[in-house]
Specification:
This protein has 4 helices and 10 strands; from the N terminus they run H-E-E-H-E-E-E-E-E-E-E-H-E-H. With about 200 residues, it is an alpha+beta fold. Strands 1, 2, 3, 4, 5, 6, 7 and 8 form an 8-stranded antiparallel beta sheet that branches. A two-stranded antiparallel ribbon has the order 9-10. The longest helix is centred in the C-terminal third of the chain and has 11 residues, at about 135-145.
Length: about 200
């Protein structure tokens, strides 16, 4: 996703990098807000299509005591490279969600520590099938993804026009959307992942 200018600049012996976090309409410049910069890891206990979910942790210093609501809101993280004195190229690192128990606020030090998981966590809900059959596999997968409040990054995958004449055989009381996405990917020799823009790919 980076430009050729970005790649050329990244080869420089001395280069300036930047970090920013976007929550809602609020942009938090790392130089002014971050005490601990984002640290990324992968959880092996939560999987989507055989791929571990990405997690992130960071600490913000809320010097001006602003309204910063990280709980259950999209947290977009970007890494940037200064291309010249007035231009920074930003590369998305992912879209994350933080639950209430993973956001700690210290009123005395004005620090907010956040641990968040990428949006693939939204796929861990039971599948509700309201599709009219027959339908194409592409439309089926799009419906599964949309049920989770997500989008497909690309509609290009093996056999998208294959027709499903009836509902796939799974237990409606215990099968998550994550598992269905995983099954479809694995059956085609693929791995489903979350893109850096928060879409299923």
């Amino acid at each position: 996703q980076a430009s050729s200018q970005y790649f050329e600049k990244s080869k420089d012996y001395v280069r300036k990098s930047r970090t920013k976090i976007v929550v809602g309409t609020k942009e938090l410049d790392g130089a002014h807000y971050l005490k601990k910069y984002p640290i990324f890891s992968h959880s092996t206990s939560k999987m989507i299509g055989g791929f571990p979910l990405k997690e992130v942790s960071f600490t913000v210093i809320n010097k001006n005591n602003e309204e910063l609501d990280f709980i259950n809101n999209e947290i977009k993280i970007y890494k940037g490279l200064v291309l010249n004195d007035s231009s920074v190229e930003w590369i998305p690192q992912g879209v994350f969600i933080a639950s209430p128990e993973n956001v700690e606020t210290s009123p005395t030090t004005l620090e907010i520590t956040v641990k968040a998981t990428d949006k693939a966590v939204n796929t861990e809900i039971l599948r509700i099938d309201n599709i009219v059959y027959p339908c194409s596999e592409l439309n089926y997968i799009k419906d599964v993804v949309q049920q989770c409040g997500l989008e497909l990054e690309s509609e290009s995958f093996p056999f998208p026009e294959h027709i499903l004449n009836e509902r796939p055989n799974y237990d409606e009381t215990s099968t998550s959307c994550r598992e269905i996405i995983s099954r479809f990917a694995e059956e085609r020799g693929c791995i489903a992942i979350m893109s850096r823009t928060g879409k299923v790919w």
